[in-house]
Specification:
This protein is α+β, with helices and mostly antiparallel strands and 128 residues long. The chain contains 4 helices and 3 strands; from the N terminus they run ααβαββα. The protein has helices at residues 11-24, 27-50, 69-81, 111-127; strands at residues 61-67, 87-89, 99-104. The chain is globular, with a radius of gyration of 19 Å.
Length: 128
Amino acid sequence: RPYIYTTAMSPLNALAIRQALQWNQSEAGEAARAILQQHIQQFRTGAAEIGLSLWDAPSAIQPLLLGSSQTALEWSEQLKQQGLWVSAIRPPTVPVGQARLRITLSASHAPEHIAQLLAALKTIHAKQ
């Protein structure tokens, strides 16, 4: 008799994973990773020039440490008002006093998007 419930991967999920792996190993995947690394470097360099406190994270997720939950929420809202979606991460997800913004970079972003984000962060940071 067939299972009513199963934890097996569906054929559609298996196909999607296979195609993602094939793309990842292709020239297009290599090019996207190179672009993403350029974006990470652009952001980290710009953030350092502004004086922002980042973790030493060479990944697409760049945590911007702000300390208080209130500050993280305020910065997130100000960025949202400028058309930038940056999530505030607060307790209990992170320890009390270590609230942050979660900046997620993508190969789909253009250098201009990174520059726009940095300009907005610079303006917000200058008000503090």
